[in-house]
Write a structure and sequence with these properties.
This protein has 15 helices and 14 strands. By secondary structure, the chain is α/β, with parallel strands linked by helices.
Length: 421
């Protein structure tokens, strides 16, 4: 069936009322395909671009099923939603409250970086839904504050990150405490073959929903690359940010130290900016996100650890000050712009050490970035290395000294004087 309106789903009228009040009438493609399958009790493996409504795709049927089924134990957690980042956990919990405001279903969110006392008190209120990051969840489980033996539904949001890069062991420990008879839902923007194999061990006869090819990028994002020496990146960034058409920019670095340095230079140049990364307290991270969301700062400098939890409207530009080590992370980074049908611009700075990473990104996304050479920091040596058939292997960062970082030749003119499209 082709679902064109939320009213066509067999959802509770109370949920539909809340959805309508949120301003939603038409489901996105991932919602149209996932919600009916989840309402039917099927396990699900869904792949869709960021900003396409994956949270509502699992939150709405989850709330409906909990409301319709009588609770066998009024003092147990019945649904567990695991997320890789604190920001994403808070975002999901906010959606649950919005969509379920006319239901008598309590939820709690537990995450690291803040005192556990308020979270323990929230658990003592016996919520039916728990949203959690793996580390803090395992910690509270070991202290006896959380039991998962009554779980009916399990959601892994951003499943590729949950199962990759060190999360797999934590996830397996948590799954050991969850009943085998459950409904399991995997949602992600990217899903490699290796991760799919891991997911197959945890899903039971799943329905696969692939709205877009894995690791695809929205056509509404205009992608550009700047070949530049590492030493000139900060000056190039400052020149670009000061352009009048940069309304709200999200800048990504690979390290926390670099994020702080970039932010401080922007502030020294008179640009309202802040940084957000794993070393920041949760309260500091939330303050920075709030200031960014409300327009109090123009630029937010972030690391990949928080990339998937940043859901701010009106981000006009995503700037990769440093390319990510993993090509999949590029998809998540630039997915912060062009959300909900809007247009966006992604700018990537590439030095000699990052040519392999750039090739890896273009191979994964099957999209070649537009090279911007009309700026005073253009490095022809790096551009030539990229175009050489003997360029670095894809997606393997070099460990050698950065001897090719300084520009070979330069062009006169202001930074990034070519108008953005």
């Amino acid at each position: 069936m082709n679902y064109e309106q939320f009213d066509e789903f067999s959802l509770s009228p109370r949920i539909l009322r809340a959805v309508k009040e949120e301003g939603y009438t038409q489901p996105t493609p991932v919602q149209a395909r996932a919600i009916p399958e989840l309402l039917a009790g099927r396990d699900l493996l869904a792949t869709a671009q960021t900003g396409t409504g994956k949270t509502a795709a699992f939150a709405l049927p989850l709330l409906h099923l909990l409301a319709e089924r009588p609770a066998p134990d009024n003092h147990s957690i019945r649904a567990l939603i695991l997320t890789p980042t604190r920001e994403l956990a808070l975002q999901i919990d906010g959606c649950l409250h919005a969509y379920g405001k006319y239901l008598k279903i309590g939820s709690a969110v537990i995450l690291g970086g803040v005192a556990q006392g308020p979270q323990v008190r929230a658990l003592q209120k016996r919520p039916e839904i728990l949203v959690a990051t793996p580390g803090r969840l395992l910690d509270l489980m070991s202290q006896g504050y959380v039991r998962l033996d009554k779980i009916e539904m399990l959601v892994l949001d951003e499943a590729d990150r949950m199962l990759d890069m060190g999360f797999i062991n934590d996830v397996r420990k948590i799954l050991e405490r969850v009943p085998a008879e459950r409904q399991t839902m995997f949602f992600s923007a990217t899903l490699s073959t290796e991760i799919s194999r891991l997911a197959s061990d945890m899903l039971r006869d799943p329905v696969t929903v692939a709205i877009t090819p894995p690791a695809s990028v929205s056509r509404k994002i205009d992608q550009h690359v700047f070949f530049v020496g590492q030493d000139n990146k900060r000056d190039l960034l400052t020149g670009i940010i000061k352009r009048k058409n940069i309304r709200r920019a999200l800048v990504f670095t690979r390290t926390k130290h670099r994020a702080d340095r970039v932010m401080k230079q922007l502030v020294q140049e008179g640009v309202a900016a802040d940084a957000i990364h794993g070393d920041k307290s949760q309260n500091a991270r939330q303050r920075a996100l709030s200031a960014f969301s409300h327009g109090k700062i123009r630029v937010l400098v972030a690391t990949d650890v928080v990339a998937r939890g940043i859901d701010v409207e009106g981000i006009s530009h995503v700037i990769n000050f440093e390319l990510p080590n993993e090509p999949e992370s590029y998809v998540h980074r630039i997915g912060r712009t062009a959300r909900a049908g809007a247009d966006g611009i992604a700018l990537s700075f590439c030095c000699a050490d990052e040519v392999g990473m750039l090739r890896g990104i273009e191979k994964l996304t099957r999209c070649e970035m537009t090279a911007e050479e009309d700026h005073e920091f253009h490095c022809t040596a790096t551009a030539a290395l990229y175009r050489s058939p003997r360029a670095l292997p894809v997606a393997i960062p070099r460990k050698s000294p950065r001897r090719g970082d300084r520009p070979f030749t330069t062009h006169n003119g202001r930074a990034n004087r070519r108008p953005q499209r």
